[in-house]
Model the fold of this input.
Amino acid sequence: MPKTKDLPGGIIIDVGSTARNKTGSWRTFRPVVDLEKCTGCGICEKFCPEGCITIKKVKGYDKPKCTIDYDYCKGCLICMEECPFKAISSVVESK
Amino acid sequence: MPKTKDLPGGIIIDVGSTARNKTGSWRTFRPVVDLEKCTGCGICEKFCPEGCITIKKVKGYDKPKCTIDYDYCKGCLICMEECPFKAISSVVESK
Amino acid sequence: MTMHEITVLGRGGQGAVTSAYVLAKAAFHDGKESQAFPFFGVERRGAPVFSFCRISDEQIKLRQQVYHADYLLVLDAALLDNVDVISRVKEGGTVIVNSTHAPDKLKSAKGINIHHVDATNIALKIIGKPFVNVIMLGAFASISGLVSLNGLKKAIDEMFASKPEVAKLNKKATETIYKSMKN
Amino acid sequence: MTMHEITVLGRGGQGAVTSAYVLAKAAFHDGKESQAFPFFGVERRGAPVFSFCRISDEQIKLRQQVYHADYLLVLDAALLDNVDVISRVKEGGTVIVNSTHAPDKLKSAKGINIHHVDATNIALKIIGKPFVNVIMLGAFASISGLVSLNGLKKAIDEMFASKPEVAKLNKKATETIYKSMKN
Amino acid sequence: MAREVMEGSQAVARIVANCDVKVIAAYPITPQTHIVQELAKMHADGLIDCEFVNVEAEFSAISAILGATAAGARSFTATSSQGLALMHEVVFAAAGMRLPLVMVIANRALSAPINIWNDHQDSIAERDSGWIQIYCESVQEVVDSVVQAYKIAENKNVLLPVMVCMDGFYLTHVYEPVEIPPKSKVHKFLGKFNYPYKLDPKKPLTMGPLGFPADYARLRKQLAEAVWNSKKVIKEVHDIYAKQFGRVYGDGLLEVYGDGSIALVAMGSVCGTIKDMIDKDELKDVCLVRIRTFRPFPKDEIVEVLKDRDAVVVLDRNISLGNAGAVYLEVRDALYDEKDKPKVVDFVVGLGGVDVNKATLNYVVEKARTVKSGHVEIVDGSEVSSSY
Amino acid sequence: MAREVMEGSQAVARIVANCDVKVIAAYPITPQTHIVQELAKMHADGLIDCEFVNVEAEFSAISAILGATAAGARSFTATSSQGLALMHEVVFAAAGMRLPLVMVIANRALSAPINIWNDHQDSIAERDSGWIQIYCESVQEVVDSVVQAYKIAENKNVLLPVMVCMDGFYLTHVYEPVEIPPKSKVHKFLGKFNYPYKLDPKKPLTMGPLGFPADYARLRKQLAEAVWNSKKVIKEVHDIYAKQFGRVYGDGLLEVYGDGSIALVAMGSVCGTIKDMIDKDELKDVCLVRIRTFRPFPKDEIVEVLKDRDAVVVLDRNISLGNAGAVYLEVRDALYDEKDKPKVVDFVVGLGGVDVNKATLNYVVEKARTVKSGHVEIVDGSEVSSSY
Amino acid sequence: MGIGLRQFAPGHRTCAGCGSAIVFRHVLEALGDDVIICQATGCMEVTTTPYPETSFKVPWIHVVFENAASVATGVKRALKAQGNNHTRVVAMGGDGGMIDIGFGAVSGALERGEDIIIIVYDTEAYSNTGLQRSGGTPFGASTTTSPAGKKIPGKQEWKKNIAMIAVMHRAKYVATANPAFWADLQAKVRKAYEMEGGTRLIHIYSPCPIGWHVDPSKTIKVAKLAVETGLWMLYEVEEGKLKINYKPKEFKPVEEYFKLQGRFKHLLGRKDIIEMVERHVREHWEMMEKVEKEGIDLPKLV
Amino acid sequence: MGIGLRQFAPGHRTCAGCGSAIVFRHVLEALGDDVIICQATGCMEVTTTPYPETSFKVPWIHVVFENAASVATGVKRALKAQGNNHTRVVAMGGDGGMIDIGFGAVSGALERGEDIIIIVYDTEAYSNTGLQRSGGTPFGASTTTSPAGKKIPGKQEWKKNIAMIAVMHRAKYVATANPAFWADLQAKVRKAYEMEGGTRLIHIYSPCPIGWHVDPSKTIKVAKLAVETGLWMLYEVEEGKLKINYKPKEFKPVEEYFKLQGRFKHLLGRKDIIEMVERHVREHWEMMEKVEKEGIDLPKLV
Ligand SMILES: Cc1ncc(C[n+]2csc(CCOP(=O)(O)OP(=O)(O)O)c2C)c(N)n1
Ligand SMILES: Cc1ncc(C[n+]2csc(CCOP(=O)(O)OP(=O)(O)O)c2C)c(N)n1
Ligand code: SF4
Ligand code: SF4
Ligand code: SF4
Ligand code: SF4
Ligand code: SF4
Ligand code: SF4
Ligand SMILES: [Mg+2]
Ligand SMILES: [Mg+2]
Done:
């Protein structure tokens, strides 16, 4: 199979390849989910611009919960703002 | 005063100069006004594409009448068609 | 190599261009090479327009306009008032005018032959409308001998393929003129 | 002729470009020639961005990017994870990082001097917001001696002419840093 | 495969219909209109099985056939002058995207003043864009070049858009004998269009991304090389076509006619008139060097045929205002490094439809004998009697 | 008249505000945006007394300032790349109509791929149009050239539109010391705009008619001569300006820097880097020949300064795909008839914003020593280490 | 002096019987002398300004096909900047120039509320280039690019409603007009002329006998029938209020209109299509009359 | 897999909190896999396809800024000609690309009734180039080319009503949407997807926190307020029938909306302007509600 860089005209065949670019490094604030409070309602998931929230099974809980993929989370905190159960808080990112 | 052909960029200062071009020569049919029938209502004047009809004093008549400037009349016969008094007829042009 | 150049003069809307095209087709049917093209202005209906045709025994490469025609067809005698026809004809060339009478305005010069034919009348009689552009070619064929009547008829059929009735009447009128001139 | 090149590394939105601009203005106020320009990407807020400044005693004609800076200012220590800072500094050059502690990830090489200053903390204290881009220049001025504190203040006033309050706080914080480093 | 007398525009429409074109999008402009009208008629009559899009502007015409080509359909448009100028931005983009479009240009002068007649300024102004440009002498050549254009454009080593340039009125409106290669033969020659990178939900890909400096420069270099290298394919396609259809246009890039020591370099329909004069020995000691592909510019080939002449007289039907004609500039560049190279002069002729007739050609050749190399002159027609 | 450190774009806005401009119409595009934004801000603050039109596309931007100029108002627009490409049709029309527009071009590469960085392809692709083109090296030169541009354009013997070209980012986004000549002095220098043929109900006239072939060709010839002859006025304006404002840019058309026997021919901001290298003797035996006005092309002047060099190395920040860089082609034409003329080679550099740094310049000059005349090479940056 | 002759000389090269020429005479008469015309390429540009001649006696400029509204924008702004607030600026173009290729510029001017008058003279086709289909071409009409062929019977899309589209742009004033109703036409142009600020757009029916295959003498006849059949509604929208200016007592059959015109020849006897067109007319009238009756406030300028 | 991730990968370079990114996720999710996207230049093109990377997993093409609708036209026609009648073709662009510079192409597609879906994601400014004024910018907003200055307080023209303009073009389906009402948004996109023939246009509110000077976390808050204040009406027009999808019980004060956004900062406390905006909202609602109530038949595709 040809590689993207071998193709003429700037055609890209590695679809979805921005996923290589971990935008988590941009984050200044980190959203943190309080799994106790999270009802798994999924509202945060709908509004995350990065699509980096999934509502899924988490160890220790029966109901699925909000899970954030910090590889991509840019720290906009929309999830925190929109969570009706105040289940998300923020901390300053420190690496 | 400068002449049009001396100006740059194709600017034309001889405004209205198409009047030099006597479109009467295009005519195949010639509209002929029957001054007896013409009431001078001016309807033909309104619809002539060339603007070559004027309603004005004509020798021998008190009321103004339809007068055609054959220098420009192209012979479309709209005037004939639109005259409510059938005051205009047409003849084949012959020069 | 002999090449002949023909100019057709008419009014916008009168079909001078079609005329040259039909002529080119006719000559080609006669086994000759041909080329026809209009002089394009922006004039609308009614204004004088030219079109041109070349007929030759060999491939025609030349693509300039026709300046001095061997034959010049005038579809409308009234145009002679406005257009200097003689300057567009070669020495010893031929002008064919659609007119009821010998065009008095046209002074022969440079040994130019002047013919006339009452095409309008024939058109009105046969076609029912004053369509003279194609049928004037009958006169041309007859006078010049550069195309055959048959070639013309084939060309007319082709040109008016979608209107067979028009083709038929035009052929008839063309033939009428052709024959009238032969006499 | 001595010319010095400075690179500022920050995140989109953090004002790295403004920082270089203020520096260029400051140097000019000190009677030097200067030039500042951004490296323009299409990244939005949050992504790493560079900007550059040149300071010289003579007219600056050079217009290439800065590849190996004499001084490199890092507005956000977290960027050190993603950006190879050392490769962008000259041998014997200087890196100044906004950080509470000596950046352990940054291994000095090529005789490079590494400084740090807790600009964020000072910014939060004095300005009330973590705006470090301009005030980091206080550290630069202090360490390099290439611009005066006065020049910086003038430049800040000019840059924030429409926001005198912002200018005032920035000047204050800049001075604080400048003085803290002098000690 | 008999010849038939028809209008140049009609011939274009008929060959396009035989090329298995799937999408046509166009906007009318004199003197291109008859091409589009003829295609519209065939479409309305069900004689050509394709999509026909009456777009609202030329910008959309080229955009639509670009999209259609990207989606794997062989496409066609034609335009002229102001229409081509309006497409300018997308003309560049199409080449950069390496999409094998084919477009017929009915060459016409550019405004202002507005003028509907022939010169080459419209397509010459696109010479930087990366399109292959073929300038034709006759209707037959236009017909043959359209077929060749698809074959060249779609070649995997080329993948470049092609303009087939025909002189407005001189070729679009002329009736002359022409052979339209039949559908079956053309289909066989071209094969099915099989764009390797087409937009297809089954094989998703991204086209037209943002290129950062290094990638942009690399892709441009790749593009530049593709254009240079297309010379080979153009010649090959020309040769195979010649074998199958029996018509030869020089080597596909360049044609030399006659063997005089003065070379007249020209493009387009005026070459017919020059040939006629050479045949009749009306131009003493003159040969014609006809550039068929101005892009890629046949630099080496031109040097070969010009370097030993006494004089080279370039006829430019365009002018790069503030310098000289485009053909002249590039011919001079090509010859620059030759020893004992000929004198080269430029005559900008036939702007805005002024007829380049025998009188003009005589004037040019005679004048060329007397002037020094480097002479650039605009012949506006007033120099020669119009009644040659 | 003190200098001040400011952004190139801001400097443009400020000088425009000092030129008594009455109508500004523009559409945003990177890297031109800051110019327009700065003007918008001044306008909203009441600091510039003019009409400001936020048009819906560049086609309308140039159309609006064309209309405004025709109606007798000094006008301004700025654009870049795709925006200039979109204007293409009207760019030609404006010159044909002999309207003295002034437009700043923030030079940027053309799509595809889309790229926002600097090269000269956008304005080079308009070189046929009849516009005067001034390529600037520094922000100061842009500022001075805008003033000169109005003076040149409005000269009764010129009446041509002018593009002032500044490298995107390199000049638009740089902060550096610059002097903005004050309003009063600029007004005095320029005088009131007094277009002799303006649209005015009191003196009706017709602009932009249809030109038949003979008239069209005559008007084109007149236009071509106006562009050629503008050289004289450009020089004069440059000299008077130099006297009044104290800054000199060669002779206004061309600038020679250093005296090496190898001439580097270049345009735009890269000339600064070359000068720096010459100053530091980093380019052995090299001099810079900077073309300031690519249109009109300073042919005779260039021959004068190049003919006795050993080699001429052209840096083209553009390429006419299918041949070579535009500057190279024209330089070779200019030198064609010289005896013992130098070898001339072409390096196409800095496409799409690739930095033309010292490493590149070194590479080019060293390579130039070894290759034969006629060598054309695209340097995409991969040839030289990026970490010079 | 005859109507419009003060502004528009004879000798122009329009075809005999040209409806656009009639429209121009009345428009120019109504505009008077204190005006600048910015015109798009098209029949009425090509036929009126064959260099070195011009039919116009008022200042007139043509640049290209697409930009009349933008050139007018610049001209108007220039006048304003020079302190001239009296001269009116008019952008004038055909259906091609204003409804299709130049519609972006028209829409831009409307959006900015440019203080200009936009006149669309609608020949329902690109007349200048030989009668190609435009957005203004009515459903079913045969044109050279939407020919009535064996498979497709003419144009298959409805006419673009430029007037109501302009209303939705909050134009200051929108009106439709027709040369057969020349007094109404002149009054509307005059009204637009007298207004200040905001964009005024007038959409004018302009029969093209050559292109429509109508006998030249029937130009006005056809124009009248367009109104009497309801196909061309005369109305105006001012300050958001719609007013229908003329309501035929009874609509004449569409076929009567079609009969006069070669472009519809293929539809004669095509009951299905003719009924569809009549239904379409009815629906349009129903909508417009309801809007008028209910006094619905259409978008307006502030 | 998260919403839209099947079609649209993370790692794109949009700003943190970008509303357009949220819009894209939902639009792409609703469109599914059997689709081809033709996109205009703008934020969502530049941030998603930095060569050699791309966020898209469905076929996607970008050519230039102005021509998304025309490229889509070509793509759709090509599919049709190749016998593919299932794949949907979508032209997607911002307010700049679709309401201003590319509106000519959009209008052309609507006029021809192209079988495509047109999605306008409206950031009410040219976000990509640094927040310049567009036809979509609302009255009073400060942008970099309509800055709130000492003399002029932001943009002085009303927002261009692209949706109703499309209705007047007889679009097959027109709808407005808002990411805060994501289910409604997805349903509308899906409805447009299922339809065949005719142009469907969806106009989507897309908050740009950076450009609007809104805290990134407030993107959805602002979007909701736009609806609650009545400034952004959710409606659809199908077969000529208007349906308003959501009517706030009571309109929230416009000032609440303005307060969150730096672009309106200069208008806080400007009672006169705020009242004007509120009157404007009221009038728009009155018109639309009347049209809905009276069951006025808007222009429709045959
Ligand atoms: C960009 C461009 N495309 C095409 C043309 C060719 N053209 C000139 S006028 C015209 C049609 C004009 O139609 P319309 O605006 O309806 O005016 P009309 O001729 O009908 O009066 C066309 C297609 C052109 N001049 N420029
Ligand atoms: C012809 C042309 N003019 C200008 C530009 C510069 N440009 C690129 S994107 C853009 C603005 C895009 O605005 P919008 O369509 O609203 O999308 P957004 O960035 O807001 O998502 C501009 C002005 C361009 N690329 N092409
Ligand atoms: S919105 Fe809150 S409660 Fe709902 S899933 Fe997200 S974090 Fe959990
Ligand atoms: S902070 Fe923003 S990007 Fe991160 S998970 Fe929450 S919504 Fe997504
Ligand atoms: S319309 Fe008839 S009656 Fe009236 S003025 Fe004309 S000719 Fe006379
Ligand atoms: S025939 Fe036509 S042109 Fe002549 S006067 Fe009557 S209306 Fe006028
Ligand atoms: S073609 Fe039609 S619009 Fe044009 S001049 Fe003739 S009649 Fe008038
Ligand atoms: S500028 Fe606005 S629209 Fe663009 S990526 Fe940032 S937030 Fe999104
Ligand atoms: Mg029309
Ligand atoms: Mg936007």
Summary: Chain E has twelve helices and 16 strands. The mean pLDDT of chain E is 97.
